[in-house]
Amino acid sequence: MTFGEILIVLLNFAGALAVFLFGMKLMSEGLQKFAGDKMRSIMGKVTSNPVRGILTGATVTTAIQSSSATTVMVVSFVNAGLLALSGSVAVIMGANIGTTVTAWIITLFGLGESASAFSLPMLLGAVSLLFMFAKRDRLKSIGEFVIGLALLLVGMEFLQKAMPNLEEYPQFLEALARLSDYGFWSIMLFVVIGALLTCLVQASAAMMAITLVMCYNGWIGLDAAVALVMGQNIGTTITANLAAMVANTNGKRAARAHLVFNVIGVVITLVVFRPVMSLIANITTGMCGSDPYLPVGTAGYSPSSIPLALSFFHTFFNVVNTLILVWFIPVIIKIVEWMVPAKAEDDEYVFKLKYISGGLTGTGELNIEAAKKEIEDFSKRVVRMFTFLPDLRTAKDDEEFDRIMERIEKYEEITDRMEIEIGKFLTRVAEGGVSQQSSQLISSMLRIVDNLESVGDSIYQIAATRRNKRQDAVHFDDHLNQNLQGMTELVQKALDVMDKNLNSDYGDVEIAEAEAAEAAINQYRDKLRAEHLESLKTHAYDYAIGNAYSSLYALYEKTGDYIINISQAIGMKFK
Predict the structure, then answer these.
(1) In order of start, what are the domains of the chain with their CATH numbers?
(2) HSE of 125 in the Cβ direction (CA atoms, 13 Å)?
(3) What is the pLDDT of residues 512-544, one digit of tens each?
(4) Among 514, 420, 413, 401, which Cα is nearest to 463's?
(5) pTM to 2 decimal places
(6) Distance between CA 512 and CA 390 in Å, rounded?
(7) Measuring CA to CA, which residue among 469, 454, 459 is closest to residue 390?
(8) Three-state SS string across 259-289, please?
(9) Contact yes or no for 513/493 (Cβ under 8 A)
């Protein structure tokens, strides 16, 4: 085989794999757009109940067809406390079960001549949906899903055709045969190969597709294929562990739990390997009438027997290991706690996103829930920042005043960075393809983070005005201080309403309370302004005092404007 021939084979193989992965991506995104808000809220409703966690993990992964994406999402949610560590382990177990659906789709529809028979009619139907119902978002999403499935099957057909006929290259077949001649050590070798290749490809579904094609073409036997699949289950955990590098302690532990679960599952399977394989072989023989251990070309051999047996094993491996290890979740937690020791909590002045610290999960719709939780944390930080302002007035000396001022400055810097990072994240989510409803929600979220940052700026400006007043030795009497205290209480109430709205389901938010709080701020501002103008006429205080006083109540009222903008943005997409 010349270099040119090898290059053509590799390019054809890479192109076929690209079609397969693109099809899987379209499938995933189509389902997510169709599910919309329901899919995003599933993860937020998981409790520590193991059964519910397993069902949730299996459901989400079946929909998005990526256990890596699910576990990255789990790491993000555990990172900020949305999921307890025990609940996350159950979700990860379910994710491993959900990912077995891919193998069954490939085995039943994507091997042999069946791919062409299914894919072209599906493409025709899907394209018809897109053209006939272009303005109906959910039907378009179904069309995208069907196109993705069709392309996945086409990619599988291309993968089969891209594989060279190894009968023309007996040396390669002999090399593969020699790798299988070491008994149990051959099994271990293929486990390692499967893990390493999956780490490199970063897609266990793609490695499963390649393994199934190799089985169908007779390149490898059932034992080697099963070992590759076990290795793939270990290799796929690398994605979550990479995402957890910037996570907190619990986020890292959730990622390690994925690795521990799969490693223990492989060890258990290796201990009872022969009885398990005998059971799988008997089930397969009963289903298709062909023993998957029959050599290629012998009487009774069927090329579909090994892929079928491999799909049975993949499901058996994940379901049985889950049924066993679900009783040992506390033990798994102890192991990961030993692997990732606890450390001191992060300093409140250190900028660190919680929910989206691992980046995109690769699933556009589900990223929105992480962004929503990050915005909730942003809101709490701004509300806390506002509580520092009264301490500036009551500071006993310059040292205490400067310490509080420095604290406000740090918070203001953090709010600036949070706006940038959350905004960038939401923009990337929107570019990845989401439903029309989710696109509108992202627009609302971008408006929210912009106004949250503006609230932070206003709080800093109030603090800076207080600092200038102190430096210029400008003093307010009790009446002016009481007026400003009244304005502080009104703005604090508006902030509390805003924070409550941001922590609720956006679809259920009633902004009447927020509008009432804003109206109270405006009315009080009008009252203070009228009194101030009258005091200037009567020379009740000098210009410096009047200027500082009017600047402060105006800044408080401006803060209220940004606050009501946030509550209005929450309900914007539901009008």
Answers:
(1) 1-35+102-162 (no CATH), 45-99+169-339 (no CATH), 364-574 (1.20.58.220)
(2) 13
(3) 899 999 999 999 999 999 999 998 888 888 888
(4) 401
(5) 0.58
(6) 28
(7) 459
(8) HHHHHHHHHHHHHCHHHHHHHHHHHHHHHHC
(9) no
